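Following up on my earlier thread - several people asked me to post the actual chain instead of describing it. Fair enough. Here it is, all 424 residues.
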Amino acid sequence: MTYKIYTLGCKVNEYESEVMKDLLENHGFQTSDNPDVCIINTCTVTNQADSKSRKLIRNVKRNNKDAIIVAVGCMIQNKKDNLEELEIDIALGNKDKSKIVDYINDFKNKKIEKFYNINEMEFEDMQLNNFDLTRAYIKIQDGCDNYCAYCIIPYVRGHVRCKKKEIVIKEAKDLIKNGHKEIVLTGIHTGNYHDDNYDFADLLNDLTKLEGLERLRISSVEATELDDKVLKVIKNNKVLTNHMHIPLQAGSDEILRKMNRKYDTKSFKNKIKEIKQIRPDMSITTDVIVGFPGETDELFKESVNTIKDIGFTKIHVFPYSKREGTKASTMSNQINGDVKKERVKTLLQLSKELEQNYMEKHLNKKMNFIPEVYKEGYIIGHTENYLLIKTKGTKDLIGKTVTVKTKEIDYPHIISEICIYVNN
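Reply from S.P.:
Thanks for posting it. Predicted structure:
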């Protein structure tokens, strides 16, 4: 049989789609643009994400009339009682993606729906021995217990649960064996990883000792989880990359309280200072939501000033989107859409300025990078501090470590020249 997978949403979804792909191909399925099975891995983080998921399912069904339509993931979990019009053959929520082959084989022209109590689920072990991309992901954790006022994810992913440390280590070893030099740890609430008394810092420490691993990157981590133990690992081990993504979400204490975030601007700034003291060149990127209910012009200005004070390298900007089922959706003082668009524009411009300032600091320097893409005579990839390098090179350098001298900015790239090819 043939298949095609469509993925919406976050890095966790990307990882889980790769797992399903791996399982299907291990059972003789082949990828095709005219598939027997279409799998849509959905997202529900905003109302717009719901709409995109539904639209994609309809389009896939319309263009693949004879295919088995499988829909999985967060939107399916969230809207499990309202799926009738979508003509889905197999509907799974956020469990049993690792059993995708069994469900397809069991399908006999009668609709299959399988859902569990999301708050009573144990961690579903998924493992990859290989990954299509140069940068490989390991999902170490699922679920969230933070219940931020704007976020639906705890209601569709359930409570925090984690992969056993032995399984994480084995998965990492297998990925390294298959040629991956960089591993990214991912999850819904990654920094809350634990396995009994074994915590996130312990896992980082053990992974950085694995032979053959050049880079270990954390996909995203909360400032509150960067305790002294984690910072000690960051300080003492250069395998951990010089880049961290730490969500701020708002630079106003009043908005942070309304969001039910677990810190204020002062503690966040202090944490960033601690990081910069042990890694002065650390690139720190962040997420910011604009237009949260009650965010006045003055409070937005507070956010802008906080961002400037911290000096992030890049900002991922999101306009607040009312999400049914969350506390924020019932709050008064919802912000006009045009106001949100203007605030997004303001922060995106600031983000570009911050990013270019960081890029300029790294011009005329020798840096290592791992090419990820070959395009029209150029190889493109990231340094360990997440600068995007573009240089003339050959396709055979993909996945290898290359030293370049940075020359000039052609945003979002730094144009560079190859100095030396480092290793296999």
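The first helix runs from residue 11 to 26. That should answer part of your original question.
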